[in-house]
Amino acid sequence: MELRRRLNLLSVAIAATPLVLAACTADSKPDGRRAGEQAASLELLVTPADQARDVPISAEVGTAVKGGRVTAVRITDDKGNQVQAEPREDASAWVPSKPLQPRRTYTAEVTATTDAGKTVTQKTTFTTMPKSTKPAITSTLYFSNGRTYGTAMPVTVAFDPPVAKEARADVQRRLFVKTDPPQPGAWSWVADGSQVYYRAPDFWRPGTTISVRSALQGLPIGKGRVGDADRTATSKVGHQVALEIDNRTKQMSVLRDGKVIRKIPVSLGKSSTPTSSGKMVIMEKHEYTTFDTRGEPDGGYVVDVQDAQRLTWGGEFIHGAPWSVGDQGSRNVSHGCTNISASAANWLMGVTQVGDLVTVKGTEVTLDAGNGWTAWNVGWDEFVKGSALPVPAGLRPAPAQAPPPGTVVGASPAPVPSGTGG
């Protein structure tokens, strides 16, 4: 597969096949002149620096070339074993397919070649640091292997504690997404650094394969912490399914591939515990679960529910609620959830996928950023502002247009926390 040049690897969507780690070209010519003399205009810098010590196990082999291009890379450990690596799309570095080992010595040989066929080879040998004693930032990749997801599924990585603003670029640089067929996207951080999302400007095309690597193990994150693990997953995108919930009509429209296949009466959150309006994504599906809100504001109850689908971290679900069937379609009585009949909830579980878009409109409060996977709750122009790295040229928002004379620009009200379950 050719590298997609227009993508900026800093927002990481690797599309290259693993580089063939070929043997390096000899550094001398038959006439006795050194390669560097024959190719005086070819400059190659390789990192880490030769004889560097205490190198993080997340290290990459960086290459900076002037007057040519990298044509061969070979990385070996101190036992002579070859280390597999893949190039970043801009060829700025070769990323080992697995984290390096602590207290080990590695050698990288890199060859660059001019268009005229002249070559130069550089070698660097470096030693990794001992196993870190710094506390790890726990990362969670909300993208599992071998699943089928909805077309609105954002690749989500969550962090505990949140990542400080000054460390986000380093973390983002180690998050990789590849799509087949290619569908470029970008990363965007929630303001507090607790989550980062990856999505494309438009929904994923059904049938797309998405491969993800969260390569954070041993990565220095700020001054006092390191990344906890290296995780990978590959899954597919299924049919386009969307749910549209209108508080005015108290109806849910279920759409598959753009066509309404059923309308379901609903009862949303009552005025003291309103349902959030906004664009959410189905995060979890449970055939059976228990809501326990003891100790929470406006809570204090324990109830068993069936066929529950989570929409927010704050506890908003779509679920079967036989106790409110008489109110569904006419009156809001829940604690923030979307109540539907038991039969409708059972049917809906067989239609939806984790990653399907759910749009709620017309309620008293708006969805808070980060309360769930809220990557679609803003437009693309706003979404890419959350990237800690430059956004690829083809994905940047259009230049802002000056508002017409007399336009009054105001701010939206602050979101109000949603209810929890019910």
Automatic annotation (TrEMBL):
- Domain L,D-TPase catalytic, by residue range, is 241-361
Keywords per UniProt: Acyltransferase, Cell shape, Cell wall biogenesis/degradation, Peptidoglycan synthesis, Signal, Transferase
Which residues act catalytically here?
319 (proton donor/acceptor), 337 (nucleophile)
Its domain of life reads: Bacteria
Q: Please list which residues make up the signal peptide.
A: 1-22
Q: In which pathway does it act?
A: Cell wall biogenesis; peptidoglycan biosynthesis
Q: Which Pfam families match?
A: Big_10, YkuD
Sorted alphabetically, which InterPro entries does this protein's record hold? Big_10 (IPR041280), LD-transpeptidase (IPR050979), LD_TPept_cat_dom (IPR005490), Transpep_catalytic_dom (IPR038063)
Q: Does the keyword Ribonucleoprotein apply?
A: no
Task: Tell me if Lipoprotein is a UniProt keyword of this record.
Answer: no
Q: Which residues cross the membrane?
A: none
Q: Which residues form a coiled coil?
A: none
Region spans: Disordered: 395-422
Name it.
Answer: Ig-like domain-containing protein
Organism listed in the record: Phytohabitans kaempferiae
